[in-house]
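[job 4471] stage=fold_predict status=RUNNING
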Amino acid sequence: MTLPVAEGPLTDGAGAEGTRTDQPAAGPPPRRRIPLVFAGVGLLLVGLAVALAVVLPRSSAGNPLLTYAVVMTGASAAAVWGLWLAVDRFLLRAAETLSREAGLIAHGNARGGVGGRVPLARYGDLVPMARAVNDLSDKLAAMRRDVARTVADSTARAEEQKGRLAAVLRDLHEGVLVCNLKHQILLYNRSALDILHLTGDLGLGRSLLHFVVAEPVLHTLERLTLRVREGRHVNHEHGTTAQFVGATTDGRILLEGRMSAILQDAEPGSEEPPAITGYVITLTDATRELAALGQRDALLREATEEFRAPIANLRAAVETLADNPDLTAEERAAFDAAMQESCDTLSARLERVSGAYRDLVSGSWPMSDIHSNNLINLVRHRIGADGPATVTLTGLPQWVHGDSFSLVVLFGHLIRSVHALTGAAAFDLSAEGSERWVYLDLVWQGAPVPSATLDGWLAEPLPDALGGLTVGDVLQHHRSTAWSEPLKDRDGCARLRIPLPPAQSPPSAHIAARPAGARPEFFDFDLLHQPLATSELGRTPLETLHYVVFDTETTGLSPSGGDEIIQIAAVRLVRGRILTGETFNTLVNPRRAIPPESVPFHGITDAMVADKPTIDKVLPQFRAFVSGAVMVAHNAAFDLKFLKMKERASGVAFDGPVLDTMLLSRMLLGNDGDHTLDGIAERLGIEVVDRHTALGDSLVTAAVFLRMVEMLRERDVRTLDDAIRAANILVELAARERAF
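[job 4471] inference complete, writing structure tokens
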């Protein structure tokens, strides 16, 4: 494409792009030269008028012609002065302003998004020049967009080819296949033929799913798609790769594979995440390893089962001897001791073998660390919008260790089984951490599953699971079990609880702790002191209200000193449930540099917010998200101050009731002690996961607030008005303390 250029060379220096390097001859610019001409003419006329005025009185006889000459000379001088003012105001100043705006447009169009506009009504007779500047601006923006698009397309194609080639070269010792999103094979190597035990060619353009079982491949691609869509691939330990276990379609070969997504970046200026255009799969033959594992499973299962009969016989013999009156007391005691020792030995051996079997099974099955939110979202996708039930993600996120695919299949099967048994159509699925386990809880309205029914489910084969795995097999692989019980804190509800091993190396364990004192207690008494709701909302019990718990990250701690919001996140809280699947989370372009000293507090850099929307675009979306809900935050006045200062620019108002967990902590726990979010969570026994981000802090604050609602009820603070009234008292006390 040929681009139009101005005559003369262009500079790449500090000037605007496209600025000409050839300069006019030395001398005063027109803005200074023209005033000199007008001033010279005006002074000449004034001097002439003064001279005539001096000469005129000396004339012996008054001469009307001389008087007229003096008057006209003065009038001419005044006219010249007036003409200068008009020229300066309506031409020269307008021309100078137009030149500056043209320079701003040239600089502002660096990204080529939209051409800058000059307001035509401002320039009067210079409207043709202003219109010409606008036309040039549009052409400049279009030219830059074309250049950027061409460069981006070429770069994307080069990066795609580079990514494919690098993946193939890196994994040539394994079977390698490159596929598009239709699963058509674009490239493969000889090792892939050997591993799949194919004598002919795979066939370029043929579907991979003709040779490999579809479910594990589709599931793994869905995991990567969700990871990339949410932007987690940037900081994820495995980036855009994930492991899976699969099989050939004839079932003869079990495969251990790794899928790597091929990404294409979004258009410049777009807020969309990168798009997955295909994937690279590397395969190894795991048939022998998994077959040996299956044989050991069968052997250990047989051995452990055979122990039970002798133990039962020994115990029966002991009971029989106890009822035999023919033995003397000494003989009975010795016989009883020997039999009991044998029973204890066999029981201990059984426990040791069973424990070793569980360790062997769980240690040999391919597993990885999984974020509970991702696992639950995959379960929701598996159930689907047209499924028999809806699944709601609730609670705080946790990290677990397991086989993602088999767990998703397991929970999908259990949800359908509970639905068929109880008729329940709505389920909550959450993760709750403890010292040794992470419990996945499936909650529904209705009766719990009877133990006998649940035991029968353990032998049921799972649809789509590899190798005919049953419910019990998946639980055994994870050293787990399952039980159902009624919920004590939710009348009429029951849950199915499955413990899973915690993650071996969760990413949150590697995040540096936020420096102490990152955000001081912030008091703006006008913001903190709120009027009572004095309506049905104010009389509503706290546990039945709809809340949005939010948090912000900022460039610094001084909202009035120029600091700006760089991230807003929030989560819904409805009837005591943290709806982790209903969140608001976005980065914000602050239109200023983020101070390097603040980056360790929030981990957000200038590069991360460079292409994000500005606060005037984000706040209307956030206001819509919190509509109709009571807002909750920790140290709420700090966040509210930033929001209030941007209300006029964004055209929204945050005038609803707000509750502050820091103030509630002071009311419940006293002024002394640690009232930071970490300190309160530790005292309330709340495990902190994914801390030090706006969304992570919102989730922790939501869990803290739920515990506080229970404590407030014991203090007879039951309604929203009660909570606001109690908070206002603390604000008044704080104001008086600061006054003294």
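[job 4471] summary: The CA atoms of residues 447 and 494 lie 6 Å apart.
[job 4471] exit 0
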